[in-house]
Amino acid sequence: AFKAAVLIQQWYRRYVARLEMRRRCTWRIFQSIEYACEQDQIKLHNFFSYLMDHFTPSSSKERDFISRMFISGESFKEAELEKYCDYESLEVPDSYTGPRLSFPLLPDHATALLEAFKQKQQLHARYVLNLLHETRKHLKQLPNISHVSTCYSEEITVCGDLHGQLDDLFLIFYKNGLPSPSKSYVFNGDFVDRGKQSLEILIVLFTFLLIYPKEVHLNRGNHEDHMVNLRYGFTKEVMQKYKVHGKKILKMIQNVFCWLPLATLIDQKVLIIHGGISDTTDLDMLEKIQRNKFVSVLRGKKRKESNRNVEIQELNGESKVEADPAGNEAAPSLSLQPRPAQAPSMANRLEFSKWVRQTVQEQIEWCRRLVDISESESEELTYSSMVSLTDLDGPCWTRQDEWKQILDILWSDPIPQEGCRVNTVRGGGCYFGPDVTGKILEKYNLQFLIRSHECKQEGYEFCHNRKVLTIFSASNYYEIGSNRGAYVKLGPDLIPHFVQYQANKTAHTLTMTQRQGFLVALISRVEESAFRALREKLFAHTSALISAFKAYDKDNTGRITLSNWATAVESVLHLGLPWRMLRPQLVRSTADGMLEYKSWLDDLAMEQRSQEHIQSSLLEVIYRNRSNLETIFRIIDRDHSGLISFEEFHQTWKLFSSHMNIELTDDGINDLVRSIDFNKDGNIDFNEFLEAFRLVKQSQ
User: EF-hand domain location, by residue (predicted)?
Assistant: First the structure.
């Protein structure tokens, strides 16, 4: 009996270990593909930024279009924004059966919203715009770093990424209770994208923020960025739900996002930021940055820095006109209006500030074209602008310094190794080690950091000797059953208490025995989904894989060793996956340990090929570029109508042709755009955009 028990125990341990190994491999696949996608987004944005930095507009019309391409949230002055998003002009019809809001909001309004969203009802556009307007007014009065104390409530609950998963937010409120004077919450960014109910989450959180402004605190995440929203679904979600007023709602949301606080500090001991820190993180600088300037953290820097240098030259009476290498004078890039008086020395910052204030109204248009400030916020003082004015004797930071501070706290990840280095996996932010964490904690007398930004299998994870806590609140993030969600509660002792959950209605009704079987089936389902995504990724890089395989096939036999297969695949995909361990799921076993790689790639193509029988090489390119193409389409489609107008296409093509040194007349561009408009309706939809790409590839 004893031997039998030991045998059963060994069998069970092996079984559990195999399940855990499968789960971890699946996790690595999902995470590697997710980070590769984020890297693609930043590369794409850097490409557009490069084009903008090296493109000289030939007319004011072209200049306006290029400036609008990435400055969507800053293109309105205060009065213009309110006029454009005028909610009072929208009438709510008598047939509307959804919740109705009146301001100031009351707890009953929040309860009504929660019930309405559970019933899949939609809030009328008037109330959405009104809510965003009031939220923006409130956020503008908040500091960059919110200060929270456990003295005023029994405990503070910190939630991580929600990513549009409303069921997780409902479950948090069900388990932990709604926000109230005795129940404080900190929501640590990434409220939107990926999930299908991002807008509902924003509405609920903003409602509670206005009802309980001292108990509800929101931090900005890296997805509270309109450039990121173009790729990951939030922009598309808003336009689908509000086809008539979606553009106004998006415009207001973009403006609200840039006013979200950057961090929260609990009892001066626990710092909550979305991503992480770096060896240059400076909380004093973060406290004083005008955060609303950074509508998108992904926006280019070179053009902005050059504008700032021009501004400083002009304020000190220096000429902008420089000689080119050939000895000819370059024409000034902007016409200047006469200055009313010589600027005082910048050494006396108080006098310099007064001089700027006296002249700004007379030369407002000139300043807006030269100084890197948000046009929408130039007419009133805000908390951060008042802080910067009261500290005129402090250090003077460049916009590049400020941008890096925000980029690091929104995009960075911790690593177990010492030091701080560029985050090459995500493409933005940095990796910071335990030594960096220790220095920041010691410098600001902190106990530990709470961050989010990374999905964790159990919903939370400690690292850096329990000095960094990652909390992630979106369960089933990659696939149903892929991970738990969690939130953490902190009392006056600041000892973290975790609550884990999984928003899965099916599992709640099962017995213990049934749950074991359900768990195994769930792991198999998640594993299948992960390998399907991985095979799509492999197929999308068929051409590069063939080249890599041929490098190991010197005799052109069409066969390589499985070890060389694993090495070649990693050299192409750069996903950092254990390919030898994953090989049995991707490659059929062979008796001699050799792989016929052309046959293997043909099998991959058969899995992905659609019923339209598109040729394999073409389908490969579309698979590899569809996400980028969709993002490019949305960038060009500035009004988010789902259609590219001839004018939008014309101006964008001028940008591309300038980069590629292609001489094309206006008539030539018009002929090109008309040839892409297959149904001749005067616009280009996404299918026409893809079809043009397909035809060009076929002709090549």
Answer: 540-575, 624-659, 664-699
User: Tell me, what DSSP letter sits at residue 451?
Assistant: E
In single-letter form, the type of residue at position 116 comes to: A
Going from the C-alpha of 504 to that of each of 173, 518, 575, 687, the distances in angstroms are: 16, 12, 30, 35
Q: If residue 496 lies in a helix (H) or strand (E), which one and from where to where?
A: strand 496-501
State yes or no: is 223 an active-site residue.
yes
| Residue 614 pLDDT grade (very low, low, confident, very high; cuts 50, 70, 90) | very low
Task: Give me Rg for the CA atoms of the chain.
Answer: 28
Contact 652, 251 (CB under 8 A): no
Summarised one tens digit per residue, pLDDT across range 9-53 is 999 899 888 877 877 788 778 777 777 777 666 666 666 666 556
Q: Cα 391 from chain centroid?
A: 32
Q: Report the C-alpha gap between 274 and 262 in whole angstroms.
A: 8
The answer for 510, left when phi > 0, alpha when psi is -120 to 50, beta otherwise, is beta
Contacts of 396 (CB under 8 A, 6+ apart): none
Report the alpha-carbon distance of residue 54 to residue 665 in Å, rounded: 20
Residues with Cβ within 8 Å of residue 16, at least 6 apart in sequence = none
The owner of tokens 């973060």 is 286
Q: Where are the domains of the chain?
A: 1-50, 72-77+104-300+398-501, 535-594, 616-696
Q: Residue 195: how many CA atoms within 13 Å on its side-chain side?
A: 25
Hey, what are 416's tokens? 């177990």
Across the strands, what pairs with 293?
Answer: none
Specify the CATH number of the domain 72-77+104-300+398-501.
3.60.21.10
Residue 519 has pLDDT above 60, yes or no: no
DSSP 622-681: HHHHHHHHHHHHHHH-TT-SSEEEHHHHHHHHHHHHHHTT----HHHHHHHHHHH-TT-S
**Which residues, 6 or more positions from 536, have their beta carbon under 8 angstroms from its beta carbon?**
608, 623
Residues 6+ apart with CB under 8 A from 499: 175, 176, 486, 487, 488, 489
Tokens of 179: 């926000």
Would you say domain 616-696 falls under CATH 1.10.238.10? yes
Q: Which of 109, 124, 223, 274 is catalytic?
A: 223
Are 453 and 193 a contacting pair, CB within 8 Å?
A: no
> What percentage of the chain reaches a pLDDT higher than 90?
41
List pLDDT tens digits, range 315-331.
344 443 343 434 444 43
| pTM for this entry | 0.73
Give SS3 for 490.
strand
